[in-house]
Amino acid sequence: MRRRFCGGFSGSTSLQLPSLAPPAPSVTTDELQSLAKLIFGRRLLVITGAGISTASGIPDYRSPNGSYSRGHKPIQHHEFVRHEAQRRRYWARSYVGYQYFSLARPNPAHRALANLEKHGFVHGMVTQNVDGLHTLAGQQRVIDLHGRIDMVECLQCHAKTPRSALQERLREHNTEWVALLRPMLPTELRADGDSELSQAQTEQFIIPACEACGGILKPSVTFFGGSVPQERVQAAAHEVAAADAVLVVGSSLQVYSAFRLAKAAAEAAKPIAILNNGPT
């Protein structure tokens, strides 16, 4: 499914992202009662993946309409670090896609989990998502396992800055490129905030360097093939150890950084419930 973008590049568009949640079978009364039993009276850890954000307008990866199903191949960590052309391609596509990705807002699932935390049922959360929607919904205890796309980091001095500031710098460095690209929209939003652009459209894109040291700027997320920071790995493992039960929402658990958390819970004989539209 293609998303048609009709806003400009000023960041002032009022576009509201439509839901991309695929059809799903209804939950039965027995299933709902079993889930309630898991939640009540236990210290619950929640693990979430891309499927929870599809109703907010962000594509997932593995559903029939997901990014992988449409041939999307996300950038690999080594490609971004080693090749300037790949960085230029990434930032050009991400510059366009992020303007719409950043419009996503929490949906009822995000708000329900925040409400469960507020009332003492959810004691920890680990999300694979980089969209920040759990925090926006009011969740207090969130480990963003793969980072946050609304932040940017320097690979040399490790300074972190808001993505919104970089978006403005990208626009200032590419005023002619932006003007030429605008008539070529609509385009396609992808799961990681990327968008579909041709190689010819990305070759002239200018990437500003870190203002602090002149180093390479990268979104503050773990790309495929990269390593999750050890402090996050340890924090997530601590949440599993402290939990009495685990609830997985919107994840196939095919990414090992999340699968190993569920595996650790299973090995400790902790009950696990999975809410996901598709195989895990």
What's the layout of helices and strands?
Blueprint: H1 29-39, E1 44-48, H2 77-82, H3 84-101, H4 108-118, E2 122-127, H5 133-136, E3 142-144, E4 147-154, E5 160-162, H6 163-173, H7 175-181, H8 199-202, E6 217-221, H9 230-242, E7 245-249, H10 256-267, E8 272-275
Parallel strand pairs: 1-2, 1-7, 2-3, 7-8
Antiparallel strand pairs: 4-5, 4-6
Portion of residues in helices? 25-40%
End-to-end distance, in Å?
23 Å
User: Average pLDDT across residues?
Assistant: 87
Sketch the topology as an H/E string, one letter per element: HEHHHEHEEEHHHEHEHE
Shape: globular
Oligomer: single chain
Overall description:
- The chain is 35% helix and 14% strand.
- By secondary structure, the protein is an alpha/beta fold.
- It has one domain: Rossmann fold (3-Layer(aba) Sandwich), CATH 3.40.50.
- Strand 7, helix 10 and strand 8 form a beta-alpha-beta unit.
- The chain is globular.
